[in-house]
UniProtKB/TrEMBL annotation:
InterPro entries attached to this UniProt entry: NanQ/TabA/YiaL, NanQ/TabA/YiaL_sf
UniProt-recorded name of the protein: DUF386 domain-containing protein
Matching Pfam families: DUF386 (PF04074)
Annotated organism of origin: Streptococcus pneumoniae
Length: 94
């Protein structure tokens, strides 16, 4: 997991993965708050999804993982609790 700060129209990070570089360029050149909810396809390997949701408790939210994608969370407003762990420390469930 990599934590990146987007503040005053610019993304601040110490080191970059290629996917983070791509996301930074997109965020710096696109006004996401003007977009409608749903999935927005940019290219064959790059899309974003605008979701309007309420954050919940750990007990009510199942864990998720991604092996093929980089999952970037960009909050337009409010706050969200994001917990993370290594897959090697997790147990597979239904």
């Amino acid at each position: 997991m990599e934590l990146v700060e987007f503040k005053n129209g610019h993304v601040n990070t110490v080191h970059e993965h290629i996917a983070i570089t791509k996301v930074k360029e997109f965020l710096n050149n696109h006004d996401i708050p003007k977009d409608k909810g749903g999935i927005h396809k940019i290219s064959t390997d790059f899309f974003y999804n605008i979701i309007d949701m309420e954050t919940t408790t750990e007990e009510n939210r199942p864990w998720e993982s991604h092996k093929e994608y980089s999952d970037v969370n960009y909050l337009l407003n409010g706050e969200e609790l994001i917990l993370y762990n290594f897959l090697s420390q997790m147990e597979l469930s239904e």
